[in-house]
Predict the 3D structure of the following.
Amino acid sequence: MTGKPRVWISRPTFPDIIARLEPHFEVAAEAAETVFAPAELAGRLASSDAAIVGLDVRVGAAEVASAPRLRIVANLAVGYDNLDVPALTAAGVAAANTPGVLSESVADYTWALLLGAARHMGAAERWLRAGHWRANGFRDWLGLDTRGRTLGILGMGRIGQAIARRAAGFGMQVAYHNRSRLPATIEAACAARYVDKPTLLAESDFLVVAVPLTAESRHAIGAAELAAMKTTAMLVNIARGGVVDDAALAVALGEKRLAAAALDVFEGEPAVDPALLALDNVILSPHIASATWDTRRAMTAMAVDNVLALFGHGPYAGHPPSLVNPEALAIRPAP
Ligand code: GLV
C-alpha cells in the first residue's frame, strides 16, 4: 500500500471524533446524509480500505466482490442486518458493530414509547394541536397504569436486560423469552422470569420486541402472534423493522384486537405502511432510540476504534473491540 489507507464515512458524524483517524488515514467523510445509488456505493467502497457506515448502507456480496481493497466495514449501529457477514468473512473483510454503548439510551427510549402508548400521548397531543381542547373531560384519555402489570420482553440481550432493569421502578413484573435462557444471576438482576413464547404472548400487558433481525426472527410477531395477545395489550418495537409484520399489526390495531403500539422501526423504512399512518392508537418515531448526544458520540468513537485497531493504531491497536466476524482475520490477516 502506498500512502495512507483511505477510510470512507458514509454520513456526517462528529468531526472531533473522526479527527482521530486523520494521522493514519486519508479520510473521506460525506458532508450530508445521502442515499447512494448502487453504483455510487460500489464506487466508494471500491476506493476504500475501511468504511464506517450507517444502517442505510447495505453491503452485499456484489459490493464486497468489487471492493478488493476493503479490510473493514464498521457499522454505526449495534444491529448489522445491512451487512452480508458471510460474504464479508469469505473475502476476509472484518465487520464491526457498536454493542453496549447504546443499550441504556435505547432502554430509556423504549420506556418513553411504552408510557406514551399507555397514556395516549401521541393522539392526545395531535388532538390538542388541532384545537379540539375546549374542556377537561374526567373520563377522557383514560390510559393504562403500568403498576402491577406484566412487561414481556422478546429478546433478552443487552438492550432487553436494560429495559427489564427499569421495570421495578414502574412496579411491573417482567417475563422474557429468548433463544436461550439467561444465567440465574442475570435473571435475578433483571427480576425477570423466563417463559416460552406462547406464554409471553398470552401474559404480556406490554410486549417489547428487542431481538435482532435474522432469517429466524423475521415476522416473529405476525398475525398469529398478535391474535394470541390480550386485546388490552400494547406492543413496542425498538428492534428492527421486519421483526414485526407491520401490515398484520395495522390490521390488529385497526380492529382493536390490540389496544395500542409504539414503533421506532419499520419494514422498508424510511417508508412507513400507510395503514399505520392512518391509525391513532400507534406512536411512530423515525428510528431514534439511540439518538442522544452521548450515545451517538460513543457509537462513532467505537466505530473509529474498530478501524484504528484493525490497522494497528489507537487504544485497541491490533484488537478491534467489537468485530462480529473475527474469523475474517484468519482469512486475511489484519494489515
Ligand atoms: C440501531 O437500530 C442499531 O442497530 O444500533
The chain is about 35% helix and 15% strand. The two ends are 10 Å apart (CA to CA). The longest helix spans residues 293-310. The longest strand covers residues 150-154.
